[in-house]
């Protein structure tokens, strides 16, 4: 009986101990579970606020400009990294996921002036349109076919700089060398030829440029124009290599087409005339080169003008002139790379701006008699 009572007592004690242990275990499990839930909640809340913060502007009060360059062929991962590295966004990964969530694509390469106050949607809109989202303080429009001297006058009308200051910069040896080092594939030693009037003639792309500060430096203004030329020409590097044509030759050829162009002009066909003449060892004999040689703008080129002794005069010298005679736009650049396949060697424009082409001199004279006299 004693043994039975003893064993029963022992069993009861073990049950009590197990109950106590069970309570402790349940309490520990409850505390651990609570801690885990609390941690998850903290992480979730922290994550929410982190993402929320990353979706907001870096500094809504910032107005200092940041130049951001998006190279050709950049994907969203590269673009996100570039934006983060430049301090325009807080987190590249969040920006990447945000654009994918909104199904945003077709971002454009180029140079962008951004600020840390821009929202992600403003940045996306800017990258999609290729334009800075903010309203510029002023713009400068450079038309196709103008010379570097004419650009100096245009810039002077919109800024505090004089044409003389502009020309002093773009003809300065140090600045030209700096641009050559910055854009080595665009500006080569060809621009240093002793017969070239202005090394950077033809390298300032005609376009509308937006400015977001009141007094940008002349260096900034000119560099923007050269940078855009670099971006445009880079699109045709493979085709240039196939045609064994240098960038300088392309811009020179395109400038001739730009100056010969009228509203109705078929530039590809004019390009074919020039190529056919070059292949036939005929002088190009294009009037705009004479005017450039004379350094003046005249409504009509006289016969005596054709005799001017100047490297740019294509009546006196065979081949292309030493360099561009104006700044050509994309249409003329593409026409220079994709001339029509013809046998034309002559062309003339009538008083309405319509062009008439001829395969030989006799046919050309008939066109002159019919459309000019």
Automatic annotation (TrEMBL):
Record-listed E.C. numbers: 4.2.2.29
Compartment(s) of residence: Cell membrane
Cellular component GO terms, alphabetical: plasma membrane
Any GO molecular function: lytic endotransglycosylase activity
Transmembrane segments: 28-51
Gene3D superfamilies: Classic Zinc Finger, Endolytic murein transglycosylase
Keywords in alphabetical order: Cell membrane, Cell wall biogenesis/degradation, Lyase, Membrane, Transmembrane, Transmembrane helix
CDD domains, per the entry: MltG_like
Pfam families reported in the protein's UniProt record: YceG (PF02618)
InterPro entries per the UniProt record, alphabetical: MLTG-like
Enzyme class, UniProt record, top EC level: lyase
A Gene Ontology biological process term: cell wall organization
Topological relation to the membrane, as annotated: Single-pass membrane protein
Record's keyword annotation contains Lyase: yes
Annotated site, Important for catalytic activity, chain positions: 260
Role noted for this protein: Functions as a peptidoglycan terminase that cleaves nascent peptidoglycan strands endolytically to terminate their elongation.
PANTHER family membership: ENDOLYTIC MUREIN TRANSGLYCOSYLASE
Similarity comment: family membership: Belongs to the transglycosylase MltG family.
Name the UniProt record assigns to this protein: Endolytic murein transglycosylase
Lineage summary: Bacteria, Bacillati, Bacillota, Bacilli, Bacillales
């Amino acid at each position: 009986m004693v043994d039975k009572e003893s064993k029963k007592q022992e069993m009861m004690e073990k049950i009590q101990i197990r109950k106590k242990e069970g309570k402790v275990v349940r309490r520990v499990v409850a505390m651990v579970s609570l801690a885990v839930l609390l941690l998850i909640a903290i992480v979730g809340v922290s994550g929410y606020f982190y993402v929320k913060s990353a979706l907001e502007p870096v500094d809504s009060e910032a107005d200092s400009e940041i130049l951001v360059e998006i190279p050709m062929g950049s994907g969203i991962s590269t673009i996100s990294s570039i934006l983060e590295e430049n301090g325009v966004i807080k987190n590249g990964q969040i920006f990447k996921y945000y654009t994918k969530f909104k199904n945003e694509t077709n971002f454009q390469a180029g140079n962008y002036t951004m600020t840390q106050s821009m929202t992600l949607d403003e940045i996306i809109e800017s990258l999609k349109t290729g334009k800075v989202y903010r309203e510029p303080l002023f713009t400068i429009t450079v038309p196709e076919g103008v010379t570097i001297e004419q650009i100096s006058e245009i810039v002077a009308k919109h800024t505090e700089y004089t044409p003389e200051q502009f020309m002093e910069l773009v003809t300065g040896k140090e600045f030209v060398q700096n641009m050559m080092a910055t854009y080595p594939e665009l500006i080569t030693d060809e621009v240093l030829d002793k017969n070239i009037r202005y090394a950077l003639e033809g390298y300032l792309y005609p376009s509308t440029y937006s400015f977001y500060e009141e007094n940008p430096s002349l260096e900034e203004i000119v560099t923007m124009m050269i940078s855009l030329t670099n971006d445009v020409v880079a699109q045709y590097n493979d085709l240039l290599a196939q045609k064994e044509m240098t960038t300088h030759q392309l811009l020179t050829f395109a400038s001739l087409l730009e100056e010969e162009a009228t509203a109705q002009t078929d530039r590809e066909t004019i390009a074919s005339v020039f190529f056919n003449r070059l292949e036939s060892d005929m002088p190009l004999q294009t009037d705009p080169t004479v005017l450039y040689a004379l350094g003046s703008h005249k409504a009509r080129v006289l016969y005596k003008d054709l005799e001017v002794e100047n490297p740019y005069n294509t009546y006196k010298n065979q081949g292309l002139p030493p360099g561009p005679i104006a700044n050509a736009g994309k249409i003329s650049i593409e026409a220079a790379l994709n001339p029509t396949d013809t046998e034309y060697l002559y062309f003339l424009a009538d008083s309405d701006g319509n062009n008439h082409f001829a395969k030989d001199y006799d046919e050309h004279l008939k066109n002159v008699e019919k459309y000019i006299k």
